[in-house]
Design brief:
The protein is mostly beta strands. It has a domain at 3-159 and 166-191: YVTN repeat-like/Quinoprotein amine dehydrogenase (Methylamine Dehydrogenase, Chain H), CATH 2.130.10.10. The chain is 0% helix and 54% strand. The protein has no helices and 24 strands. The strands form 6 sheets. Strands 1-2-3-4-5 form a 5-stranded antiparallel sheet, with no helix packed on it.
């Protein structure tokens, strides 16, 4: 899934096996937008723009991007409360769902959308929610509310599990079709801000406002490794396709690269 990067920069999502890269504007971006969303091919010597869509208005802002497993569909969540699904080949809008969410990914055996959101109740409380949403018609297939905030989401390589960073310091690993809890354990001392599944091993990477990054065997909730000295806190985490490298984008806009073989 994509995460917001620095001031006047873009939200990005990559699909390594197809070499496609999606770009969209975030809250920090200029108000004069050329493209609200664009898709690029990066398998050639120079990046090639495959398609783009113009902004619907001067404040057409994206808050999440994600590809499906095969790279054929691209998901975009907007700040005005829409989930848009595009055909990656030509940029055709396939689905436009009116539903305000914070983050979303394609997951599950049917290629549904799993999304996290936060809304205000009539009594002023915040209701935090995880939902499985049909990517074709917006039907909610499963839903779970919580009084604790959900801050991050990641999907496993086989798309059968989703990991959720939940306040105050836990991670939930759920069945992507039913939202049944598979694993739950404490991972940090403060809020979880970023998550990533290892591409081949049962390892989950977690980042937090406690300024650490940790690697866990999520089946046994066993801590494997800790990285300290992070400036700010991680906002996105990603493994390389072979699982040997880990990248972290920090709150200070610094990108860190870790060699996990060392």
């Amino acid at each position: 899934m994509g995460e917001r990067f620095g001031e006047n920069q873009t939200l990005a999502a990559a699909h390594p096996s197809t070499g496609c890269y999606a770009l969209a504007y975030t809250y920090e971006s200029p108000e004069t937008l050329e493209d609200a969303l664009s898709l690029w091919e990066t398998t050639t010597d120079a990046p090639k723009k495959l398609w783009s869509i113009p902004p619907a208005n001067p404040h057409d802002i994206s808050i999440a991007l994600a590809f499906d497993a095969k790279g054929g569909r691209l998901l975009r969540c907007t700040s005005d409360g829409h989930i848009e699904v595009y055909d990656s080949q030509g940029g055709k809008l396939l689905t436009n769902i009116s539903r305000p969410v914070f983050r979303a990914v394609f997951a599950g055996t049917s290629g549904d959308i799993v999304a996290i959101s936060s809304t205000a109740a009539e009594d002023g409380r915040r209701i935090h929610n995880i939902s499985v949403i049909d990517a074709h018609d917006g039907t909610v297939r499963a839903s779970m509310d919580s009084e604790n905030a959900f801050n991050a989401i990641a999907v496993s390589p086989d798309r059968r599990l989703v990991a959720i960073g939940a306040d105050p310091h836990d991670v939930l690993i759920l069945d992507a079709d039913t939202l049944a809890t598979r694993y739950r354990f404490r991972v940090h001392d403060t809020s979880v801000t970023a998550l990533a599944f290892h591409p081949t091993l049962p390892i989950l990477c977690t980042g937090s406002t406690d300024q650490t990054i940790k690697l866990w065997d999520y089946r046994s909730a066993t801590l494997q490794r800790t990285f300290v000295g992070i400036e700010g806190f991680p906002r996105s985490l990603a493994f390389s396709p072979n699982g040997r490298l880990l990248t972290s984008d920090g709150r200070t806009f610094a990108l860190r690269l870790y060699d996990l073989d060392r």
